[in-house]
Write a structure and sequence with these properties.
A: 363 residues, alpha/beta, 14 helices, 9 strands, B: 89 residues, alpha+beta, three-stranded antiparallel sheet
Chain lengths: 363, 89
């Protein structure tokens, strides 16, 4: 199965983070500081990514600013011509660092906001980060970066989507991503505490639709639907190994950030292999390209070029077989798994927080 | 919003027009997005400098392609306008 040029690389340069959000997209088994790639490793990976056709780079984590070399990495990426986004909590974005990042050629900063209600925001983050986020947002505006705010929506904040939109506008965001929680990794662990009711989802969708029209031209709003409440699965990053790569802190390279939960796959590292080989030839990237791996009803479905059978990670996490249809799809009997989860998600909001020690360990 | 011959189109403030030596193709890069441009699209966008009107752009391209391309220019820019990647003054 041939491969095309990837467009986007997400570099999870560290899993360390001062926040402990219970829906974190990092895997449950996080990578410690002493396993992280070096600055030179990352630069080599970015150079190889550009040679492979990557145009968009996300410097993400964890909290990428935990590493002191973000500025250096951003500069290298800019030299390569990559359009680079810093995906940050805002914690650690001092004036000095923001100015250095601007000089380095970084173009876009995305700051996460947990809620418009500070008490709930603190409870989700597992720390008080609101004042630092607001200060970071002001810096991003002042220094002229393209500025996005990302908010993960769940049962405890989705009813305030209107206030959240107003907050983002008041902070001067160019873009606002309202992303309903996707249930992988930490969020799957916390699914009963996070999942909103269908009525909450419907109400929030109406508010978002209206706001998209109202703010058009001033702030671009993206509303990412919750797939559990949809009839068909999402086309995960436009299909497995078609456009997108994620490099984890230790160099293992994935077709999507949740892929390590497919425990039957082994992922190669940019420490050991050229990125081109990983993209074009590694068994993990080949595994779900095309449609030969598909089962019914996907294989003969007219939607297979639209959603590619949905999310492989979700199929594996919920059914134990990554070649199954994504259970979100109402065309498969596996959908009963999703319907049951939605019905039964009434647990108290007692979160299991993500936790990884911040200290740098050397062995 | 609709586009006419007198509109002055400009690429979104947050988008950057570039040439990708890997694909040998012009590209439009912006937060979380990429548009791979064909030769005509790239030629149109390169001329949208915030000073030229649609008619000005079409006139320059007409010299290059030896035919009236006004309708094509309006059609192409309208699609990008719809996606908010092009704005009009």
């Amino acid at each position: 199965m041939s491969s095309n040029h990837p467009t986007t690389l997400l570099a999870e340069i560290t899993h360390r983070c001062p926040l402990h959000c219970p829906y974190c997209s990092n895997p449950l088994e996080m990578i410690r500081a002493n396993r992280e790639l070096t600055t030179e490793d990352w630069k080599r990976a970015f150079t190889q990514a550009r040679e492979l056709g990557v145009l968009q780079l996300g410097l993400s984590g964890g909290e990428p600013l935990v590493r002191p070399d973000v500025e250096d990495l951003a500069k290298h990426a800019h030299t390569l011509g990559l359009y680079t986004t810093l995906v940050t909590s805002g914690v650690g974005l001092t004036r000095h660092r923001a100015e250095k990042l601007r000089e380095a050629g970084l173009e876009h900063i995305q700051i996460s906001i947990q809620d418009s209600d500070h008490a709930v925001a603190d409870r989700i983050a597992g720390m008080s980060a609101v004042p630092q986020k607001i200060a970071a947002a002001a810096l991003v505006r002042e220094l002229g970066f393209a500025f996005s705010i990302n908010v993960v929506l769940h049962r405890a904040n989705i009813d305030r989507v209107d206030a959240i939109i107003k907050l983002a506008a008041s902070l001067g965001a160019d873009r606002l991503e309202l992303a309903n929680t996707q249930y992988y990794g930490w969020a799957l662990e916390n699914r009963n505490a996070l999942m909103p009711t269908p009525a909450q989802v419907a109400a929030a969708s109406d508010v978002a639709d209206e706001a998209i029209r109202q703010y058009r031209g001033r702030m671009q709003i993206l509303y990412v639907l919750p797939d559990y409440h949809e009839a068909y699965p999402k086309p995960c990053y436009g299909g497995w190994g078609r456009h997108y790569l994620v490099v984890m802190p230790d160099g293992r390279t994935l077709p999507c950030h949740g892929a390590t939960q497919i425990t039957t796959l082994r992922f190669d590292s940019v420490r050991d292999q050229p990125l081109r080989w990983i993209w074009e030839e590694s068994p993990a990237f080949q595994a779900f390209r095309g449609d030969a791996w598909m089962q019914e009803p996907c294989r003969t479905c007219s939607r297979k070029e639209i959603d590619f059978g949905g999310c492989r990670c979700q199929a594996f996490a919920l059914t134990g077989d990554a070649t199954n249809p994504d259970p979100v799809c109402t065309l498969t009997p596996l959908r009963t798994i999703i319907d049951k989860a939605v019905r039964e998600a009434t647990g108290p909001p007692a979160y299991q927080y993500r936790y990884l020690s911040l200290e740098t360990e050397r062995t | 919003m609709t586009l006419t011959a007198t509109s002055i189109p400009v690429v979104w403030r947050l988008a950057r027009l570039d040439f990708d030596p890997v694909r040998q193709q012009r590209v439009l890069l912006y937060p979380e997005g990429v548009v791979l441009l064909n030769d005509t699209g790239g030629a149109i966008l390169e001329l949208c400098d915030g000073h030229r009107s649609v008619a000005d752009v079409a006139a320059i391209l007409q010299e290059r392609y030896h035919r009236d391309v006004t309708a094509d220019v309006i059609d192409y820019l309208s699609q990008l306008l719809e996606r908010d990647l092009v704005r009009v003054e």
